TrEMBL record:
Keywords: Cell membrane, G-protein coupled receptor, Membrane, Receptor, Transducer, Transmembrane, Transmembrane helix. Its main location: membrane. It comes from Channa argus. This is 5-hydroxytryptamine receptor 4. GO terms for biological process: adenylate cyclase-activating adrenergic receptor signaling pathway; chemical synaptic transmission; positive regulation of MAPK cascade; regulation of appetite. It is found in: Cell membrane; Endosome membrane.
Length: 460
């Protein structure tokens, strides 16, 4: 009876104890599983959409997927950082090459004028040297800060220097463009006008006034309006929004936007008016060159019969060349030998063709470098400043490149400058000095002449 009671009493107690322990363990396991709804792995949180009961294999699978995804994410970040660093290095090298070549070319032009007395005798060469000085300042003062801002992605020099840098940018680039315009006008007077007209137009005083204007006029569209913030009148809110968009303040971001009146006036003075004058001048020069080509063809068709007579003197000179051998004249004569007519005609045609190609290269480079920037500069204020900053930066640096091309277009194509460069680069080698002075000692010896209708053409 007692054993029977023992079985009926003790067994339920044991079962109750076992069930209680199992229940507690199960509840603890469920709580632990419920708490694992947010798993943190290397700082990256991933929400696991589990139920109250998670099979071990599912938990392992989710953790493995999370590990793989985190590894891929880190690989992508490292790859992006590597590409970003590589792009920065390539961009820095490219911009450095532009700056170094611009400094070297323009500095070489200035040194050549200082060391070669023959170049200093020709007053129009001062346009080229003044142009080189403006482009040299662009490379030393403007380009480095623009390159640092582009490669680092921020402005580090404060608001005041931002205004100064922007003013210098506008002043020096405008001065460079105005010098190109003055060179075109000088060539027009030298090639398309009579010698007396050229001497009357291009006096030393007038050359000095033109050079002064190239430096004074840009100040009225650079320091004066920019330091007074005239360019920002009416668009202050847009400028602040642009600063907030790039996440910077006045001291850490250099934002330069212009209103519509400033954009129109600045672009007209700095580009469109000089462009119009250059197009007109070079068009007249091209017409004159083609006229000479037609005269040569007429001489060639005339055959071997000499024609004598007299005619007024007409002189055609290349103002960009200090080499007297590049000067040629239509001069008065009483007769000539036609046996040399063919070589002179062919030589003259080569000169005219080269002149036409040179003009095309000069105008093409100028328009290619600056037209995109100034077209965008006029259009952007009228389309609510929606032009991407990447496009602005590309057009601006394309204009800077023009300062590096100018020494090659206006000085390196000049024979006298090339000889001076050789002397400088060869450490004053007397062979090049003698070659450079040889042509100056033969400035008045005519090679040959051919006459038609009483007018002779001689290449000197």
């Amino acid at each position: 009876m007692k054993g029977k009671v023992f079985k009926t009493v003790v067994r339920p107690v044991m079962l109750f104890g076992l069930d209680t322990v199992a229940l507690k363990k199960r509840q603890e396991a469920e709580r632990e599983v419920a708490e694992l709804k947010m798993v943190t792995y290397e700082g990256r949180q991933t929400v696991l959409q589990w139920g109250e009961q998670v099979p071990p294999e599912l938990l392992f699978r989710r953790l493995l997927d999370d590990l793989m995804n985190t590894g891929q994410h880190q690989d992508q970040q490292q790859q992006q950082k590597f590409l970003s660093s590589l792009e920065t290095i390539v961009l820095t090298i490219f911009l450095s090459i532009i700056i170094i070549m611009t400094v070297f070319g323009n500095l070489l032009v200035m040194v050549a004028l200082c060391k070669d007395r023959h170049l200093r005798k020709k007053k129009t060469n001062y346009f080229i040297v003044s142009l080189a000085f403006a482009d040299l300042l662009v490379a030393l003062v403007v380009m480095p800060f623009a390159a640092i801002e582009l490669t680092t992605g921020e402005w580090q020099y404060g608001e005041i220097f931002c205004l100064v840098r922007t003013s210098l940018d506008v002043l020096l680039t405008t001065a460079s463009i105005l010098h190109l315009c003055c060179i075109a006008l000088d060539r027009y007077y030298a090639i398309c006008c009579q010698p007396l007209v050229y001497r009357h137009k291009m006096t030393p005083v007038r050359v000095a006034v033109m050079l002064g204007g190239c430096w004074l006029i840009p100040t009225f569209i650079s320091f004066l309006p920019i330091m007074q913030s005239w360019n920002a009148i009416g668009i202050e809110d847009i400028i602040e929004e642009r600063r907030a968009l790039i996440g910077g303040s006045n001291d850490t971001s250099c934002v330069f936007l212009v209103n519509q009146p400033y954009a129109l006036v600045c672009s007209a003075v700095a580009f469109y008016v000089p462009l119009a004058l250059m197009v007109l001048a070079y068009q007249r020069i091209y017409v004159t060159a083609m006229t000479h080509v037609r005269q040569i063809e007429t001489l060639q068709r005339a055959g071997s019969a000499p024609i004598t007579g007299t005619a007024p003197v007409v002189t055609v000179r290349s103002s960009t060349s200090s080499d007297p051998s590049d000067h040629y004249h239509l001069r008065k004569t009483t007769g000539s030998s036609s046996s040399e007519q063919g070589p002179i005609a062919n030589s003259r045609m080569r000169v005219e063709t080269k002149a036409a190609k040179t003009l095309a290269v000069i105008m093409g480079c100028f328009c290619l470098c600056w037209a995109p920037f100034f077209i965008t500069n006029v259009v952007d204020p009228f389309i609510h400043y929606s032009v991407p900053w990447q496009l602005w930066t590309a057009w601006l640096w394309l204009g800077y490149i023009n300062s590096g091309l100018n020494p090659f277009l206006y000085a390196f194509l000049n024979r006298a400058f090339r000889r001076a460069f050789l002397v400088i680069l060869c450490c004053g080698d007397e062979r090049y000095a003698r070659q450079g002075s040889y042509s100056y000692g033969h400035t008045h010896r005519a090679c040959s002449a051919a006459s038609v209708n009483g007018t002779s053409m001689a290449l000197r």
